[in-house]
Amino acid sequence: MSATTVTARARQRSVKDVARSVFKRQETGLLGVIIVLGLLVSLANENFLRKDNLYNVLQTVVVVGVIAVGQTFVLIAKEIDLSVGSVLALSAVTAGSVYGSGANPWVAMIVGIGVGALCGLAVGTVVVLGRVSSFIVTLGMLSIARGLTQLITGGLPQTMPSELSFIGQGRILGGIPVSVIIFVALVIIGQLLLTRTIFGLRVTAIGDNDAAARTGGIPVGRTRILTFVLIGTLAGLAGIVFSTQVGVAEAQAGTGYELDVIAAAVIGGASLSGGRGSIVGAFLGACLLGVLRNAFILLALSPFLQQLSIGLVIVLAALFDQGRQGNLRHLSLKALRQRFLARTGA
């Protein structure tokens, strides 16, 4: 056999291996689901595939998607953040309040995002130094941030600077929303940060086995704190985007968003057991939620069915994650048959 033939076969195997690995990735399957769902909806309502509607779908998922980027890092580190909706609101009203006091609009925006980062720093510090479950700490921060929001606003909406309105309402490059471009840029940066930097590798190692990571010299506590600072910063940025979309910062903004954020990250492949996740997957997870909601609106279906369908998608995604980890082997036909035979004594 000639060297040329061997090289050609090796290349063919390499291409097949790459193709097989791509098709096995959850992101590929998720993208396929979104495409199939989009085609089905478009058959029922031709308006779905209109450019303006597709831009609208992306624009509606920007806020949840931006925070889902940070939530993915937190989940990979085997933690969770339930406070993001309240931190979003606190950051937005802080920016509006600072602007209302006469500050420069850009300074107000930076202060608002900084408040989100400080909330993340506070949560991370308590989790790491106090050794308290992130579930409990962020649940507490959810109430603290929401209470501070009410104190700052007195229940009244805060006007956002008109100079920042282009962030939430502006369009460039033939009608693409500025907020969507920001979202896509953050997804690219987040994916590179997760897969191509020491920080990202440390986060993955900690979520996979924090004891081994600590033994290997990784600063586990500091890395975990940084993940909470990251999600707090992104929640602050999402607060600016959300408030500039609607023109005002309200005390009730972001209520319930924490569930959508977790759903987007989990649907996108982030494991609740830590150690695994994808920023691109979180992007696609957020898009799937957006497509579902848009489909229900276009098809004039009940909003109660919308909540039901999203809940089912979350449960199915969690089950898929468990199956991927091999935790559902006891439900295989072989395992069930062996259990049946053992009980019947056959």
Distinctive features:
two-stranded antiparallel ribbon
How would you describe this structure to a colleague?
There is one protein chain. This protein has about 350 residues and is an all-alpha fold. The chain is about 75% helix and about 0% strand. The strands form two sheets. The chain has a two-stranded antiparallel sheet. Strands 2-3 form a two-stranded antiparallel sheet. Helix 3 packs across helix 9, helix 3 runs antiparallel to helix 11 and helix 8 crosses helix 9. The longest helix is centred in the last third of the chain and has 27 residues. It is globular and about 80 Å long. The termini are far apart. The relative contact order is 0.17. The model has no long low-confidence stretch (mean pLDDT about 85).
